[in-house]
Amino acid sequence: MKKIVYLLFFIVSQTVFGYNDSFSTAGFYPHENNTRQVAGFNTGWKFFLGNAEDASSVDFDDSAWDIVALPHTLELLPASASGGRNYQGIAWYRKTFTLNNSYEGKKIWLYFEAIMGKCRIYLNGKQIKEHYGGFLPIIIDLSEAGIKSGEQNVICVCADNSNDPSYPPGKPQEALDFCYFGGIYRDCWLYTTSSVHITDANYTDVKAGGGIFVSFDNVSEEKASVRILTHIVNETVHTQSVLVKNSLIDNEGNESKECVSKLTLKAGEEKSILQSIVIKNPKLWHPDSPNLYDLETEVRMGNKPVDGLATKIGIRSIQFVPDKGLFLNGKHFEDKLLGGNRHQDFGYIGMALSNNLHYTDAFKLREAGFRVIRSAHYPQDPAFMDACDKLGLFVIVATPGWQFWNNDPVFENRVISDIRNMIRRDRNHPCVLLWEPVLNETHFPESFARKAYLAVHEEYPYKGCYAAIDDVSKGSDYYDILYCAPKQESFYRESGKCCFTREFGDCVDDWYSHNSYSRIARDWSEEGLLHQAQHYAKKNYEGSLTVDQLYKSPPAHIGGTLWHSFDHQRGYHPDPFWGGIMDAFRQPKYAYYMFKSQSSPLINHPLIKSEPFVFIAHSMTPTSPEDVTVYSNCDSVRLIVTADTAVNQAAKTSGFRHSYSSRFYTDTIVKRIEKGMPGIPNSPLIFEDAFSFVTVRALHRSKKEELARIIAEGMIDGRVVASSTCMPSKRSDKINLSVDNCGLVPQANGSDIVLIIASIVDERGYVRRLANENIEFFVEGEGEIIGNNTIGANPCAVKGGIAPLLIRTTTQPGLIKIIARLQYEGANTAQETSLTFNTEKSKIELVFDEQSYQEKKEKPWISKNRKRMKANAPVLQEVEKDQQYFESTEKHK
Fold first, then answer.
1. Does residue 808 sit in helix, strand or coil?
2. What is the largest CA-CA distance in the chain?
3. Of the candidates 133, 542, 599, 739, which lies 20 to 30 Å from 825 by C-alpha distance?
4. Distance of CA 874 to CAs 675, 732, 761, 863, 880, Å?
5. What pLDDT, on the 0 to 100 scale, is given for residue 4?
6. CA 433, 438, 441, 445 torsion-angle sign
């Protein structure tokens, strides 16, 4: 199906938090007095896996190639595809598009957020760019390259992710602890400027300059000084006089202050202009109150705007004080900064996450109580950085690299280039806490460590810039922050530096086997999940660090990041890393709730619920442990269970308070949560021998199944402020479908990916964790299913009671209907179900000539078993009666 979509306009920025202003485009946000045009360039690409001779030629026949949308991974793989199974080699992308005559006289730019590996880019058969490295932007002046308005153009990309030691990471993928897959796995944008315009910091090679550079001084609750360095180029043939206006707009859309300056540029000249705005009573950025301002920058010639863009900034100051720790906005941050590492790796789509998936990652991590993320082991997607700004997640930005050094000067030069470009890209993000410019766990020479440190401070020569390195690495004396495990107070005094633990929690037997009690798949066992959570929290045996030990460290040790937030694929081992607090589809394990319970219930975060919380880490299955573990951030927890005198003759001495009612009685016990420094803020509570499946069985047989439950009540100052109830699931009766999108409405942009969770539940809606089924999915409307049976995506195996599904939106807004049923249905199996939701029209215009043709799908076969199940209900009741009668008879023999 052919379709020509013209870029017409850019959407006006909104001052409320919404999807359209949640993510930057090509490194900037829209400006109210718009002169730039921006279009999504993700749709309508033709793709071929492998090499194709003359594929860069305009006349090349690509009619047999697949039509794909970006972000795109080279191949879909099973969710457990570690061990070097991913494709390595050349792949080709081609995109044919047409721009109308309104583009005449404008500069046209192409902005790739990243392309994995080494690549060559062609316009209309001519090579216009060659690039090495897979994690930072590639920006091309298409006007200079000869793009044609009003005519058809062809962009071609040859992407090669094969091993290459000449650029970072450099190490062979089959020897890496992670996978970086391949392809054009991040967004691509097309935008315009006039010939007099604000430059892009990653395009112009200007130290501590280019584009917009915002820094701060004298930050306090009373006032703050905001410095704005704006770099402008005049590409006309005449001298031009311009006005540069910068305005600050707060969260409510109120203009706080502005400044205006004149600048004269000769033909072909580029200059920077420094302006300053002093704000009284600024709304400061803090993880628990992430206030943002829109810095709107406008360039005018006479009364005519010629360029304009917006930058989201957060006014804040960061200072690390030896012996004392972190000072944020002039105040001592007395809490420990606790968080996790993050790989950009999701299910079976590799690193090709859409922007809404990046946002949900950040949202879930912040909801877990994390306040800091280490970007292991490369700069993260711009959408993730945008989300961290909004949600209040500090980020340690790391340069690409892992256990590899090449003495060839070309390699070092490319690493230094990456360092400079990651700072130029991310320097205005308030979420940036530290820069990690050295290669992770690498034996590099001291000379490199010094060059990397100098590059950081050359690119960011202002207050609040800190670079981190391992304390055992060569050149660590140059650095501001040391990575290490907590040490004695004397170490911090002698070093005169603050420290941070970049990775904690993981524990393996040896680096060949990789067996570990911290690495537990979500569906393995409750005991395993409990062991993992307890291992991360507090333990009484030798091994890796815990939350408890980090909190016991001296003030100069500011915190640590767990290894790792999510389960993910690895190159050098056949097993995925299963140590995440969420699985590869971001579904929580017990450890997630343990971390969440460390958050204070008193924080008033604008976007994340921070409230009294209690979670029962128990499923009440026949194989569940007898001890019941509860995670809570309250002062104390009251646990209420039903006991059976027939199986618990020693109940009177158990410490529970009893309320007798015939054979069954209510056991109630209150336990206080261990609090206070030093140590973990809220220790997990373990109620010994609080669960008996024999009692659950007796309650059901006595028709008192409503009493087969565990109730946990969280109390603060003796008052119940949170409650949770756990009940055992019955038989598998139906399938539930839910959208796991953290409140974002999917956009009809051809790129958004929606995560659907299918749960096997009983008649009351309780998830049956022991269900062992395959679910088959069908889609109708404006969406398409990602993956098929070859990778276990559809049908999908139920694990721990749930099965994930990924849906990609089309470019047309409308309804998407998901239908889920068991792959093999029967008279007494879970009933099929459906879910319908809407997609919104894309807030950004799209440019493409071709889109994938989605065949009309016949409605799936609708099972007749639902009617048969209802008819079978009386028969099943008779079966139950007979089973109960004969079992009772057996007991009396």
1. strand
2. 108
3. 739
4. 54, 18, 21, 21, 10
5. 36
6. negative
pLDDT digits (tens, 9 = 90+) for 460-473: 999 999 999 999 99
Q: In what order do the strands lie in the sheet with 318-321?
A: 318-321, 325-328, 331-332
**CA–CA separation, 309 vs 294, rounded Å?**
10
Name the DSSP letter for residue 336.
-
Is omega for the bond preceding 564 within 30 degrees of 0, making it cis?
A: yes
Residue in the structure block whose two tokens are 């721009």: 99
CA 792 to chain CA mean position, Å: 23
Residue with token string 């090449």: 406
Res 866: pLDDT = 41
Reported as a single tens digit per residue, the pLDDT across 774-799 is: 999 999 999 999 999 999 999 999 99
By three-state DSSP, how is residue 174 classified?
helix
Burial of 83 (0-12, 13-18, 19+ CB in 10 A): middle
For residues 442 and 407, is the Cβ–Cβ distance under 8 A? no
Quote the mean pLDDT of the chain: 90
Specify the DSSP class assigned to residue 175.
G
> If you count them, how many residues does the chain have?
893
84-127 pLDDT, tens digit per residue, is 999 999 999 999 999 877 778 899 999 999 999 999 999 999 99
Q: What are phi and psi of 644, to 5 degrees?
A: -125, 120
The answer to whether residues 785 and 776 touch, using CB atoms and an 8 Å cutoff, is no
Token couple for 552 = 């016991």
400 three-class SS: coil
- Residue written as token pair 């690299």: 401
End-to-end CA distance of the chain: 75
Q: In the beta sheet, which residues pair with residue 174?
A: none
Give pLDDT, residue 893: 39
pLDDT at 5: 34
Count of Cβ atoms closer than 10 Å to residue 738 Cβ: 12
- CB count within 10 Å of CB 491 equals 17
Concatenated DSSP letters of 417-479: HHHHHHHHHHTT-TTEEEEE-SPBT----HHHHHHHHHHHHHH--STT--BEEETTSTTGGG-
**Using an 8 Å Cβ cutoff, are 521 and 583 in contact?**
yes
Phi (first) and psi of residue 130, to 5 degrees: -130, 135
pLDDT at 149: 82
| CA 284-592-603 angle, 5° bins | 30
- Please enumerate in sequence order all residues whose Cβ is within 8 A of that of 165, keeping only pairs 6 or more positions apart, or say none: 171, 404, 406, 408, 411
Listed in sequence order, the residues at least 6 apart from 345 whose beta carbon sits closer than 8 Å to its beta carbon are 178, 179, 181, 351, 566, 568, 569, 584
User: HSE (CB half, 13 Å, CA atoms) of 514?
Assistant: 14
Contact status, residue 538 vs residue 552, Cβ threshold 8 Å: no
Res. 891: pLDDT tops 90: no
Distance in angstroms (rounded) separating the CA atoms of residues 642 and 891: 24
Tell me the C-alpha distance between 137 and 500, whole Å: 29
Report how far residue 557's alpha carbon sits from residue 677's, in angstroms, rounded to the nearest whole number: 14
pLDDT category at 851 given cuts 50, 70, 90 is low
pLDDT digit string (tens) for 617-675? 999 999 999 999 999 999 999 999 988 776 655 444 455 555 545 678 888 999 999 88
Using CB atoms within 10 Å of the CB of residue 859, give its burial: 0 to 12 exposed, 13 to 18 middle, 19+ buried.
exposed
The closest of 679, 660, 682 to 671, measured between CA atoms, is 682
Task: Answer yes or no: are the C-beta atoms of 249 and 255 closer than 8 Å.
Answer: yes
CA angle 426, 160, 75 (to 5 degrees): 90
Is the previous residue joined to 168 through a cis bond, with omega within 30 degrees of 0?
A: no
Query: Which structure tokens are listed for 250?
Result: 């707060």
Sign of CA dihedral 168, 172, 178, 182: positive
- Asked if residue 71 has a cis previous peptide bond (ω within 30° of 0), the answer is yes
Burial of residue 204 (number of CB atoms within 10 Å: 0-12, 13-18, 19+) = middle
SS3 for 827? coil
Q: What's the CA gap between 763 and 730, in Å, rounded?
A: 8
